[in-house]
Amino acid sequence: MILSLDKASDEQLLHAMAGEDMDALGEFYRRHESRVYRYLVTRLNDSATAADLLNDVMLDVWRGAARFAGRSKVTTWMLGIAHHKVLNHWRRQGSRVFTEVDETLEDESESADLEKALSAVQDAERLRECLGKLSDAHREVIHLVFFEELDYAEIATVMGVPEGTVKSRVHHAKNRLQQLLVRSLKV
Known about the structure:
This protein is an all-alpha fold.
């Protein structure tokens, strides 16, 4: 058992969890539950399902703690598990159509700068509404870039897609969000 769990690294907690240390699991859960929950709510737009999947993610982390190889950060590995839980949920529901971004589409963004549009939006509800209008893939990539502050390689690992696809999705998602924000400011 680790003497001071609150000072232990995520890797140390996983090692202790691999040895079936329930206190380490409790600390890991406390440390990461809000991050995983936020990610799941962003993807699902359903707080009850997000809470259920949060528990499934943490159970998989517990079960897989001994297999964590350290090829990525613990948070990247954990969000990858969450990403797959969401995909499995949608497959079971049969309510989602999985499509890729058409990379040949013209960039139809307005000339306003995204940073200016974001800073001009004072109302968090307006931003949330615009984010809700993005496709699932775009909303996910925006969340991972801006709220989780992951780099493109980490996002590619989480989403299970090539890094180039992530870059393209970020580009298109920013443009689409910019269009939505500009339109919402004109209303």
